[in-house]
Amino acid sequence: MKNICSILLLLLVCNLGFSQENPVLKSNKWSAEKAQSWYDSHNWIYGANFVPSTAINQLEMWQEDTFDSETIDRELGYAAGIGFNTMRVYLHSLAYKVDKKGFKKRVEEYLNIADKNGIKTIFVFLDDVWDANPKIGKQPAPKPGTHNSGWVQDPGYPASKNEANFPELETYVKDILKTFANDERILLWDLYNEPGNNGKSNESLPLLKEIFTWAREVNPSQPISAGIWKWDEKELNEFQVTNSDIVTYHDYEGPEWHLRVIQLLESFNRPLICTEYMARTRNSRFSNTLPMLKEHTIGAINWGLVNGKSNTIYAWDTPIANGDEPIEWFHDVFRKDGTPYREDEVNLIKKLNNK
User: Which residues contact 104 (CB under 8 A, 6 or more apart)?
Assistant: First the structure.
């Protein structure tokens, strides 16, 4: 990952404007001035990626039988209590497909709960990470000690490269965007999480281009983005950065490397939001990363809020088969009862926002 030459090439390509943008993408993309004005109108953006502790994945969060408004309210209350003002939340096209009206009703209910807690939302549409075969209905139980054992891609694989699926996805994306296009409770639309992950690489580029086109055709009042995450995916990175209103990115490295990434991405002269960071055993911590992000006025959205069925207290590649708590949590801030995993971390979070 630490390939400075790849990043420099990315910057060169993007700044020279090599992106093959279609007229819709060009005409509706925000100017740098509009993006900065939007960013300046908000307090410092910081919070977490959120799925309630009772949900193993996006489908369990959004399907009618398992939508848990009580837990969502309680856990967003934990977030509000330490000053978090933004949650990044994944949607799922299959939950919409089987129950369009119900799905949108539940999205509205979630937004009401978040707004009551003073929290804005970044919604994520598509995702190339973890299980490639999402299935509607009852979701599996967590595998003991295994990070995100039940998380599912959207739309999955090979579905993500099958263009026959694109019209149905377009209907879904445009319906959600149109329904909430002027909703001030939504901060930003994150169109595609980690395109090209799970070895897909440029196989995800056609769908990435399509979802940006669909979003630009709707032209919501909120900005759109798709975060860069792997520096050697040059074509994907170039398209994402060139076509995003706000530059978003993921970084789970230590602060020295993360700072270099910040300094390079600042060359785009657009607001930055780090939409994933904080993996303690990789030395990406609140203590060494969050103050740096605030100093550079970069939005900071760590992975994980409450330890639950997603099992993200366990590291990506080090499962603990008997389910014992790891010596050090990988992600997450709170236990289910609202007790902080580390009091010094929540004290720092509060301090940085004068909470």
Answer: 96, 175, 176, 179
Question: What residue segments make up the domains of the chain, in order of their start?
Answer: 43-352
The CA radius of gyration of the chain, in Å to the nearest whole number, is 19
CA 213 to chain centre: 20
pTM over 0.85, yes/no: yes
- φ, ψ at 166 (rounded to 5°): -65, -40
Nearest to 342 by CA among 355, 350, 333, 330: 333
**Cβ count near 257 (within 10 Å):** 16
CATH for 43-352, among 3.90.550.10, 3.20.20.80, 3.40.50.12500, 3.40.50.1370?
3.20.20.80
Among residues 71, 84, 156, which one has the least CA distance to residue 121? 84
pLDDT at 22: 75
Q: From CA 38, how far away is CA 271, in angstroms rounded? A: 9
Per-residue pLDDT tens digits for 109-128: 999 999 999 999 999 999 99
Q: Which two tokens stand for residue 143?
A: 């595998």
What is the rounded distance in angstroms from the CA atom of residue 109 to the CA atom of residue 256?
41
Neighbours of 156 (CB within 10 A): 19
pLDDT digits (tens, 9 = 90+) for 46-93: 999 999 999 999 999 999 999 999 999 999 999 999 999 999 999 999
